[in-house]
């Protein structure tokens, strides 16, 4: 029996080219949602499972007049307390928020946060049509448009801060 090298080589090439790629990677889809509890209102974009840290979390503490922003992205080269700029863009508009890196309790995972911030510039970007991009240094993430307008409107109604 004669072995044909071409079919075997072709099969091995296909096998080698797909070996590093899983056929399907399952993960929860990120969604927009608003939560209100008394004078506290939060706008969140992240996994359905609320135990997972959201990509974007804007908290409005009406009772004390402070808004806080948290952005969970990949910051492997950062230390806690480093100054960062969180850039938002959509529809040709931009807004920049000064913040710093922080570490999650227990895990030490680095994320970006900004406290005592103006809410209106961020909401103006989130109200734009099309995807919103958040960029911190070389890291960027695009936020979905699905139900964003509705959740931002609900948050805007309940958050009395500028």
What's this model, at a glance?
With 162 residues, this protein is α+β, with helices and mostly antiparallel strands.
Task: Give the secondary structure arrangement, pairings included.
Blueprint: H1 5-18, E1 30-37, E2 40-47, E3 56-61, E4 66-71, E5 83-90, E6 93-103, E7 110-115, H2 120-126, E8 132-136, E9 139-143, H3 148-158
Antiparallel strand pairs: 1-2, 2-3, 3-4, 4-7, 5-6, 5-8, 6-7, 8-9
Question: What does this entry look like structurally?
Answer:
The protein has 162 residues and is an alpha+beta fold. It has one domain (30-158): Immunoglobulin-like, CATH 2.60.40. Helices cover 20% and strands 39% of the residues. It is built from three helices and nine strands, in the order H-E-E-E-E-E-E-E-H-E-E-H. A nine-stranded antiparallel sheet has the order 1-2-3-4-7-6-5-8-9. A hairpin with a 4-residue loop joins strand 3 (56-61) and strand 4. The radius of gyration is 21 Å and the shape is globular.
